[in-house]
């Protein structure tokens, strides 16, 4: 019998599998995707948010625990478990040497990458290189890996894991780590969570930035079998992305990063939120939800020539025009309202010293909603517009865990069932997001879950002997 069964093939699952194997357990990893699509959402990532008290290799300056915690507290609005969040923060300070041992390389942040050279360590080659390195290491360590292995349900005895069921096959193990993502690719579940507006399913206009294989099968199964839940099914890492992006696996390149440098209007040509509320790394993942709340789940980011060169350029060119009336006609928005919105914004701008790398003093006065930073009139042609849709990366509804990554049933921890990654991220992320923290959660809890699962399995093995 296998000691530790790991369900999933992304960062959290791989960290769990590697740690369990290093602890002396035999490990089988089941990845629902085919080999060429392995890695879950982790293949689309770029970096890991890291606590550090002084400059370290690719990280500049210092990013101490308390600042990291305050950043997380701010974006979540307090909807986070402080004990588990601080566990993640502290774990982020000492994981990179272990990652390097398994073939992960880091590089300094490139200029213009969300102003995160101080807070985030970037993977050389991105997330795809990271998961490939982990898979190579897993194979070298003798971890068994099966692709196209869609686990349909778990067999439990009360709160204890017994076996997994895959296409009619029963796979028993002494312990199990569930690290197979959320339900962002399950359109029916998204519909159920978001409901209808004016007879239309809100979620039908969502695009999925990540993997098509995260259907939430085991999350639904665990909740049906009494696992304690955490989080809101409508909360997610949801980014405003190019409306022309593919339905699945668009990844980072579909994001539109100029939101803070201009204005955003909905399809009635009205602004609906403060574009300059905070730095883009701390606010980019709220804009998808904001767009989801607009009519027909669409919005438009509008900039002028002054913004060009100050953000990561999109993959697809925007709609361009030499005048605002020409731009609005190309977009098909209500022309009079659009021109009124822009005029009101332009007149409200109080331009001081513009600096897109700090929270500058360029703001609006007497405008609702305000723009609190980086407010400059849209007055320099050519003008650009990018249509936006909600792009879901991962959902926050999950199973409740403790600091040993144990899944809870009726408030009590399971003795041999653990969870890591997106399926439990809602314990730390009740809402909101800040760049790189998803990988911090997956790495921290993946490593904990693997270690604890190996200990549980080996203890069970010893008792049986």
**Biggest sheet, open or closed, and with what strands and sense?**
8 strands, mixed
How many distinct helices?
Answer: 12
Q: Label the structural class.
A: alpha+beta
Number of domains: 2
Percent range for helical residues?
Answer: 25-40%
| Average of the residue pLDDT scores | 95
- Assess the beta-strand content as a share of residues: 15-25%
What value does the Rg take, in angstroms? 23 Å
Query: How many E strands?
Result: 23
Sequence stretches where pLDDT stays below 50 over 5 or more residues:
none
CATH homology superfamily name of the largest domain: FAD/NAD(P)-binding domain
**Shape from CA axes?**
elongated
Q: What's the quaternary structure here?
A: single chain
CATH classification, class level of the largest domain: Alpha Beta
- Using the coordinates shown, work out and report the CATH topology of the largest domain: FAD/NAD(P)-binding domain
The first-to-last residue Cα distance is: 13 Å
Assign the CATH architecture of the largest domain: 3-Layer(bba) Sandwich
Cofactor: FAD
GO molecular function: oxidoreductase activity
Domain FAD-dependent oxidoreductase 2 FAD-binding: 3-428
InterPro entries: CobZ, FAD-dep_OxRdtase_2_FAD-bd, FAD-oxidoreductase_2, FAD/NAD-bd_sf, Succ_DH/fumarate_Rdtase_cat_sf
Description of the structure:
- The chain is α+β, with helices and mostly antiparallel strands and 465 residues long.
- It folds into 2 domains: 2-181 and 216-235 and 396-464, 3-Layer(bba) Sandwich (FAD/NAD(P)-binding domain), CATH 3.50.50.60; 237-390, Flavocytochrome C3, Chain A, domain 1, CATH 3.90.700.
- It has 12 helices and 23 strands.
- Strands 1, 2, 6, 7, 8, 9, 22 and 23 form an 8-stranded mixed β-sheet that branches. Strands 12, 14, 15, 16, 17 and 20 form a 6-stranded mixed β-sheet that branches. A 3-stranded antiparallel β-sheet has the order 3-5-4.
- The protein starts with a strand and ends with a helix.
- The relative contact order is 0.20.
- The mean pLDDT is 95.
């Amino acid at each position: 019998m296998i000691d530790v069964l790991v369900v999933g093939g992304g960062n959290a699952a791989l960290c769990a599998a590697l740690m369990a194997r290093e602890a002396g357990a035999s490990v089988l990893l089941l990845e629902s995707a085919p080999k060429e699509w392995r890695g879950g959402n982790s293949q689309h990532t770029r970096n890991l948010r890291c606590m550090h008290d002084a400059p370290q290799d690719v990280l500049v300056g210092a990013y101490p625990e308390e600042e990291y915690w305050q950043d997380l507290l701010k974006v979540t609005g307090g909807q986070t478990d402080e004990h588990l969040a601080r566990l993640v923060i502290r774990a982020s300070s000492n994981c990179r040497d272990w990652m390097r041992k398994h073939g992960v390389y880091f590089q300094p942040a490139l200029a213009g990458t969300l102003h995160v050279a101080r807070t985030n360590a970037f993977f050389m080659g991105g997330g795809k290189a990271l998961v490939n390195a982990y898979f190579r290491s897993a194979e070298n360590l003798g971890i068994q890996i099966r692709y196209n292995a869609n686990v349909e349900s778990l067999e439990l005895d009360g709160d204890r894991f017994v076996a997994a069921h895959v296409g009619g096959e029963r796979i028993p193990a002494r312990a199990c780590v569930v690290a197979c993502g959320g339900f962002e690719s399950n359109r029916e579940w998204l519909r159920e969570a978001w409901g209808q507006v004016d007879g239309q399913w809100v979620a039908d206009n969502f695009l999925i930035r990540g993997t098509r294989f995260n259907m939430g099968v085991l999350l639904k199964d665990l909740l049906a079998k009494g696992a304690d839940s955490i989080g809101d099914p409508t909360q997610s890492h949801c980014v405003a992305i190019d409306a022309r992006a593919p339905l699945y696996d668009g990844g980072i390149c579909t994001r539109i990063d100029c939101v803070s440098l201009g204005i955003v209007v909905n399809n009635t040509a009205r602004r609906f939120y403060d574009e300059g509320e905070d730095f883009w790394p701390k606010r980019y993942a709220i804009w998808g939800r904001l767009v989801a709340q607009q009519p027909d789940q669409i919005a438009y980011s509008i900039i002028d020539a002054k913004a060009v060169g100050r953000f990561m350029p999109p993959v697809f060119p925007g709609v361009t025009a030499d005048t605002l009336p020409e731009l609005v006609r190309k977009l098909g928005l209500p022309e009079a309202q659009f021109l009124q919105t822009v005029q009101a914004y332009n007149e409200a701008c109080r331009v001081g010293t513009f600096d897109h790398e700090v929270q500058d003093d360029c703001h609006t006065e007497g405008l609702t909603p305000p723009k609190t930073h980086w407010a400059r009139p849209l007055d320099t042609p050519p003008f650009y517009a990018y249509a936006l849709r909600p792009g879901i990366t991962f959902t926050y509804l999950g199973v409740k865990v403790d600091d040993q990554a144990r899944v809870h049933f009726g408030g009590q921890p399971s003795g041999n069932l653990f969870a890591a990654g997106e399926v439990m991220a809602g314990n730390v992320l009740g809402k909101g997001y800040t760049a790189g923290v998803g990988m911090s959660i997956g790495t921290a809890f993946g490593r904990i879950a693997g270690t604890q699962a190996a200990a549980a399995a080996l203890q069970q093995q010893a008792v049986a002997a």
